[in-house]
Amino acid sequence: xxxxxxxxxxxxxxxxxxxxxxxxxxxxxxxxxxxxxxxxxxxxxxxxxxxxxxxxxxxxxxxxxxxxxxxxxxxxxxxxxxxxxxxxxxxxxxxxxxxxxxxxxxxxxxxxxxxxxxxxxxxxxxxxxxxxxxxxxxxxxxxxxxxxxxxxxxxxxxxxxxxxxxxxxxxxxxxxxxxxxxxxxxxxxxxxxxxxxxxxxxxxxxxxxxxxxxxxxxxxxxxxxxxxxxxxxxxxxxxxxxxxxxxxxxxxxxxxxxxxxxxxx
Length: 265
Prior knowledge:
Strand order of the largest sheet: 1-3-2-4-5-6-7-8
Distance between the termini: 53 Å
Number of helices: 7
Strand content: 15-25%
Structural class: alpha+beta
Order of helices and strands: HHEEEHEEHHHEEHEEE
Largest sheet: 8 strands, mixed
């Protein structure tokens, strides 16, 4: 079976004719043995990419600053991140702006795969935090087939996303190192209750690693009355459905936030 598969991979000029198989047996064996390691490596690489640790490569990141200063502190100005991935080039595009960069979410591939990640800085009761949103399932039936797998992939790749944000907005974080201590809240949006959840990934410096501590909980809610300790007053990201964590110990309740709908942007 292995010999047959290897032989089928050979170029036509190198394949021995059936009448010459016996005379060229030694040559054929040599060719087969040379191709086996290549086939083995080909099978290992996809497995490593899927189940191995995700690695951030700055050379594959394109950063766009759209109407924002890369040095102004986000507690006074909305600051939103829109990150998309190209399956063709394997490159990431990070837009830093006051609201979602809707032009990144209009393509047919994005409507099918929904692999974008959006995030924004918030100040709640005087404490800065980064709120990250991922779409697990809902919208069309293809996304509903494998919510567990999509949850696994997003969880595995999120350290890469956070590292892209840290690298892309490096001037901001260098000027305000206290933002590295800001808590990261990750919202997984799904029509399956098991994966429709919020997780705290700890401070930003910890959330960028694969060994960070993660808990299922909800962040603090902003003040009900007008105040100066919460910002922005309205989220810079539009939401489409409610997110519940009623089974979270010590924090029953709901939070009316959902994943942005590209068709409405």
